């Protein structure tokens, strides 16, 4: 028996505030968000370059409610499956859409070393800097670790 795998695991920056809405007679929650991932590499000429890929992430029901807690600019880790669908736009042109159907989402905190080591307990932490330290997760979101 053969087995096929359709899994996507992404960690990136949330590009828009989540769009939470309720659909159908049952009022199922659905949330859409755009996630940016960046690939950094060295070119043949020895220069560093990067490419950013934008992903459409869709969550349903409880996952949608959790996705709605994200904010633009947050780092998030998602896990789900890839879905390709076609739909006609307003002009009648058929369009292909690729989406990640999110099954698990986690907000990822990235803290500066000095914020962790030197902050007094009553001081507000600075906005996290993604380049300074490895990521750690916010355990209240389920402990999804990369």
Question: Count the helices. How many?
Answer: 2
If you average the pLDDT, what whole number results? Answer: 80
Query: Can you summarize the main beta sheet?
Result: 5 strands, mixed, barrel
So what's the CATH class?
Mainly Beta
CATH third-tier fold name: OB fold (Dihydrolipoamide Acetyltransferase, E2P)
Within the largest sheet, what's the order of strands? 1-3-4-6-5
Question: Structural class given helices, strands, pairing?
Answer: mainly beta
According to CATH, the homologous superfamily is Nucleic acid-binding proteins
Helical content class:
under 10%
Proportion in β-strands: over 45%
Beta strands, count: 7
Give the total of domains.
1
Cα-based radius of gyration, to the nearest Å: 18 Å
Question: How does this structure look, described?
Answer:
This protein has helices at 62-67, 113-118, and strands spanning 8-14, 19-23, 28-42, 48-60, 75-88, 94-109, 136-137. With 146 residues, the chain is mainly β. The protein has a single domain, classed as OB fold (Dihydrolipoamide Acetyltransferase, E2P), CATH 2.40.50. It has a five-stranded mixed beta barrel with strand order 1-3-4-6-5. Strand 5 and strand 6 form a beta hairpin. It is globular, with a radius of gyration of 18 Å.
């Amino acid at each position: 028996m053969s087995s096929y795998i359709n899994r996507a695991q992404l960690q990136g920056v949330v590009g828009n505030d989540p769009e939470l809405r309720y659909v159908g007679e049952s009022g199922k929650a659905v949330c859409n968000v755009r996630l940016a991932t960046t690939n950094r590499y060295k070119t043949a000429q020895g220069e560093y370059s990067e490419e950013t890929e934008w992903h459409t992430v869709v969550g349903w029901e409880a996952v949608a409610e959790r996705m709605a807690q994200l904010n633009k600019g947050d780092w998030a880790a998602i896990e789900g499956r890839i879905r390709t669908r076609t739909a006609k736009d307003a002009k009648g042109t058929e369009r292909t859409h690729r989406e990640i159907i999110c099954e698990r989402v986690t907000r990822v905190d990235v803290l500066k070393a000095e914020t962790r080591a030197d902050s007094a307990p009553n001081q507000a932490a600075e906005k996290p800097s993604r380049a300074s330290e490895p990521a750690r997760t916010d355990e209240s979101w389920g402990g999804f670790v990369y």
